[in-house]
Amino acid sequence: MDMAVTYAENRPAAGRRWWDTMERLLPKLVLAPTTVAGLVFIYGFVLWTAWISFTRSSLLPKYDLAGFHQYLKLFTSERWWVASKNLLIFGTLFVTICIVIGLLLAILLDQRIRIEGALRTIYLYPMALSFIVTGTAWKWILNPGLGLERLVHQMGFSGFTFDWLVNPKMSIYTVVIAGVWQSSGFVMALFLAGLRGIDDAIIKAAQVDGASLPRIYRCIVIPSLRPVFFSAVIILAHIAIKSFDLVVVLTRGGPGYASDLPATFMYAFAFTRNQLGFGAASAMVMLGAVMAIIVPYLYSELRHKRNG
Amino acid sequence: MNRKRLGLAVMVGLLVGLVAVSALAGEVEVLHWWTSGGEARSVAVLKKLLEQEGHTWKDFAVAGGAGDNAMTVLRSRVVSGNPPTAAQVKGPQIQQWGDEGVLTNLDAVAQAGNWDNLLPKVVADVMKYQDHYVAVPVNVHRINWMWCNPEVFRKAGAKIPTTWKAFDEAAAKIQKAGMIPVAMGGQNWQEATLFESIVVGVGGPEFYHKTMVAADPAALQSPKMVECLKILKNIKQYTDRDAPGRDWNLATAMVINGKAAMQFMGDWAKGEFIAAGKSNGVDYVAVPVPQSSGEFLFNVDSFIMFQVADKGAQEAQQAMARLIMEPRFQEVFNVNKGSIPCRLGMSRAAFDDVALRSMDEFASAAASGALLPSMAHEMAVVPAIRGAMFDVITNYYNSDMKAEQAAKSLASAVKAAI
Fold first, then answer.
1. pTM
2. Residue A146 at interface with chain B, using a CB cutoff of 8 Å
3. Predicted local distance difference test score (pLDDT) of residue A307
4. Both B163 and B279 in a single domain?
5. Angle between helical axes of A116-124 and A78-109 (0-180°, round to 10)
6. B248 and B179 assigned to the same domain
7. Touching check for A191 and chain B: CB below 8 Å?
8. What's the whole-number mean pLDDT along residues B363-385?
9. Residue B377: C-alpha distances to residues B146, B191, B364 (Å)
């Protein structure tokens, strides 16, 4: 009898204890494979690439260290500097223009207009395309003998020229055009969501106080969108840095290598020119540049949040 | 009883037969990127020949990127210690794979097949690593062809040029008549293809060898090189503005439909003319690039063979090497692909006029020392140097850089890449 009672009492307790343990362990168990995969396939391979970048690997990876040989070669390579400068131009313009257009569209759409749903969808659709499609379409539009220039000529304005795509000095800007076309709709959606999240009461209070509409936007709405700016910059910056397909399709890095980006540079050297070590070095410099920009930004933004 | 014995005998016989067959037959796994139309048909021929000998063919085609994708896959397979039986690799990259110590020796097949006498020495040398055959050549393409639309020349009252001076006159006339003299594809390899054809024509075989094969910095910045670079840049004014980024076959199409007068391209352009139903000598004419009629820049595709552990696979590998060099494969494959056989002295019946002229030039250039490996098509220098040359050539062609400066940076870029 006694035994039975203890047993009956113990069983639920043991069960609960087992369940508690499970509850503590389960998230860890479920997350463990992803964590391991992340560690190996991201950080592991970053380290591997770093190692390779310090070797003279050419066709196949070799593991004998050779110091900064590849980095020295990289920094004397003219093509590398062209690619870096292009990334700077492309990155800055792409992020800025996308944010300006996105914000403007979002504010305009936020004026409680009719058919907002339809307009929003139209602006957002380019995001559904891959960069390959965008690149091909814009390649045709921007081609002087095929697209825009020819169209304007046919309309009778024969003095019109728009040859950025085939002009080595301007070709990187065509990449900006296509990139902005594709991504600004998405930024608009981000900002629109942010705008909808702002408490109407604050705006109404400002209106009661007699603030003008531009002033309300400048002093209340836009500052309160700060977290959205943060996400937009992070997302756009990483799109800019990893941009590869757009350039490959739109300009093939040309004319010459005038519109090369570090990503296409790295691919060309590591995979088509059998210079693994050199390609790895360029990849590491890219990583360093990204960290130099993103880490301080993340740090300041997140600290700001914690304090506020 | 008798019946039982007979049954047993049959079974034993079958078993023995099976064992015998399995000792001979093996599987070849072949990495290649011949996946489109005529190329795929050409590969199918090899597959059929191997299967007739009882071997099996495991296709390992990696399409795209003109072989870049395939090379990436090949690298990971070799690094993981599981190489395919054979892979489509050519030029100095054969030496790079040889350095890795993963290639097998094909000397036995080569000796039995008398390869040393059938192949021109320059071609045989490409197939050897430290004097041993490690690769089999499949075909030969001639690079320095100029494809002309005679109708356009007639309309403009111009003659098909054989020197660069005559080219200038003809191109000016064609431009005046309102047509595009040169159909150019503005991609780095197409610019380099034209450039090397200029170098071999203007500088001659010895100068070509010094600059594009040995990559000698002194020769690369010599006055002769400056002259070649000037000729290259001079051609740009005769191209249309839409050339940057254009694919080679679209440039060929411009010659086919009479928009442009000429294109500088290897003999694979012939396939485009044939596909468009044009006839050689009437609708189109193929002549050597000006001043390079005696020279032959070659592009030879080849298969390298890896060391494999399986006995059957080794057997099949040797059979594959032998079959590739045999006349029946060389003929069917090259007729399909529009190239010419790499072995000399083949029957000429199946080939068309352009191919026959190529074959004659191939033989005579081999004898005179004017048979030279193409830099633009990965036959002459390792990819690192080729890439460095490409960068300078394309940057020079597409910017306002001076020829003297381009020659200097050609030399310094090559030095940096070594």
1. 0.81
2. yes
3. 54
4. yes
5. 170
6. yes
7. no
8. 92
9. 17, 12, 22
In terms of Cβ atoms closer than 10 Å to its own Cβ (0-12, 13-18, 19+), residue A56 is middle
Inter-residue contact B100 to A59 (CB < 8 Å): yes
Q: For B281-336, what is each residue's pLDDT tens digit?
A: 899 999 999 999 989 999 999 999 999 988 888 999 999 999 999 998 999 888 88
Q: Can you tell me the distance from the alpha carbon of B221 to that of B206, in angstroms, rounded to the nearest whole number?
A: 15
The shortest C-alpha distance from A245 to chain B (Å) reads: 13
Number of residues that make up chain B: 418
Q: Which of A58, A139, A255 sits opposite B186 (nearest CB)?
A: A255
CB proximity A125 to B under 8 Å: no
Cβ contact (<8 Å) for A76 and B416?
yes
Q: ipTM for the complex?
A: 0.72
- A163/B241 CB distance under 8 A: yes
Residue B11 reports pLDDT greater than 90: no
**Phi, psi of A24, deg, nearest 5:** -75, -40
Q: What is the CATH number of the domain that holds B168?
A: 3.40.190.10
Q: Does A275 touch chain B (CB under 8 A)?
A: yes
Rounded to whole angstroms, the Cα distance separating B320 from B311 reads 14
Which tokens in the block code for residue B354?
């352009």
As a whole number of angstroms, the distance between CA B354 and CA B373 comes to: 20
Asked whether the beta carbons of A243 and A90 are under 8 A apart, the reply is yes
Q: Is the pLDDT of residue A6 over 80?
A: no
pLDDT at A285: 92
Show the domain range for B105: 26-142+299-367
Q: Is B248 in the same domain as B185?
A: yes
Per-residue confidence at A305, pLDDT binned at 50, 70, 90?
low
* In a shared domain, residues B268 and B413: yes
Q: Is the dihedral of CA B239, B240, B241, B246 positive or negative?
A: negative
